[in-house]
Amino acid sequence: MHTYASYEGVLTLNRGGTRRRIVRTCRYSGDGHMNRDANRIRILTVDDHPLLRAGIAGLIADEPDMVLVAEAENGRGAIEQFRRHRPDVTLMDLQMPEMDGFGALEAIRAQEPDARIVMLTTYPGDAQVVRALKAGACGYLLKSALRKELLSTIRAVHAGRKALSPEVTYEVAEHVGEESLSPMEVRVLQMVADGNSNKEIAAKLGVSEEAVKGQVRNILSKLGANDRTHAAVLALKRGIIV
Q: Which residue in 37, 124, 163, 239 could disulfide with 128, CB within 3.0 to 4.6 Å?
């Protein structure tokens, strides 16, 4: 709920010897913006790169139906700014220090299930897209497409629709129906990508080396990979591991 305060200014004019008192009343929202902002899409931008935040601010500034109400540089700041400003649409980077976009998305949605959040990322990996949408994201936008797609995405999400970059939609569609990796397979694959041998993975997980080999075989089959290295490359590209 927004609160408002009234301000009355009195101006005295001398015209032809006649003194006139003009009273003007302005209504300000509780966050300091003029009441006209109530009819605009209120936006929170969250990204750890100041230049990207500045670029988004520049795009929004020219739009009569939008206003940037706050910025944050990490997930924790996003939660605090969301609680303070209750924006209509939040633009959230995925990879940030202290708390990433997924953590902030889940925390904000736990507080406000109707929060409309668009995830911003550099990579179109389908696994991250699916995870974000399952967590309640309303949109998923590539940073390389901000200039062309940001404004239409904000308006679509504000209107209650989902919005995905075309490249992201293609990536998701390409892997629909494929069997996903289990949590243990993802964990093993992350260790493979980190350079661990099967023997080292077995020791860290407290399982036999044969069990790890079985997990790796399943991973290669599900990803359609030729070998361990190929599997790691595919998983990084799709956002299955980071």
A: 239
Backbone angles phi, psi at 137, to 5 degrees: -65, 145
**Rounded Cα distance, 8 and 138, in Å:** 41
Give the model's confidence band at 37: pLDDT under 50 very low, under 70 low, under 90 confident, else very high: low
Cα–Cα dist 5/156, whole Å: 32
* Nearest by Cα to 47 from 145, 125, 118: 118
Distance CA 75, CA 101 (A): 6
Identify any residues that bridge with 93 across adjacent strands, giving them in sequence order.
Answer: 120
| Cβ contact 127:102 at 8 Å | no
> Using the 8-state DSSP alphabet, how is residue 34 labeled?
B
Helix, strand, or coil here: 224?
coil
CB atoms within 10 A of CB 149: 18
8 A C-beta contact, residue 114 and residue 131: no
Chain centroid to CA 89: 10
CA triplet 112, 118, 119: central angle to 5 degrees? 110
Residue 23 pLDDT > 80: no
Largest Cα–Cα distance of the chain, in whole Å? Answer: 101
- At residue 162, the pLDDT reads 92
Crossing angle for the helix pair 50-61 and 146-158, to the nearest 10 degrees = 70
| Element holding 79 (H helix, E strand) | helix 75-85
Burial class (CB in 10 A: 0-12, 13-18, 19+), 119: buried
- What is the spatial distance between Cα 128 and Cα 130, in angstroms, rounded to a whole number? 5
